[in-house]
Amino acid sequence: MSPADGTPSYEQARDELVEVVRRLEAGGVTLEESLTLWERGEELARICQEWLDGARARLDAAAPESSDD
Length: 69
Hints:
Layout: H1 10-26, H2 31-62
Helix pairs in contact: 1-2
């Protein structure tokens, strides 16, 4: 996953997710708009989790193997 493939960066996805949550919490949107925002929020949360999972995998791969002496 990379910004080059059209996927937002972690920071972009997180910032947009914060805005989606803010709009949902503020209210004043129609049911249809709320559903659309909710769906977008779910997608953004998935994207953030994928970035975090990828970062964890890279850290795990870079960490030296622990030995049981």
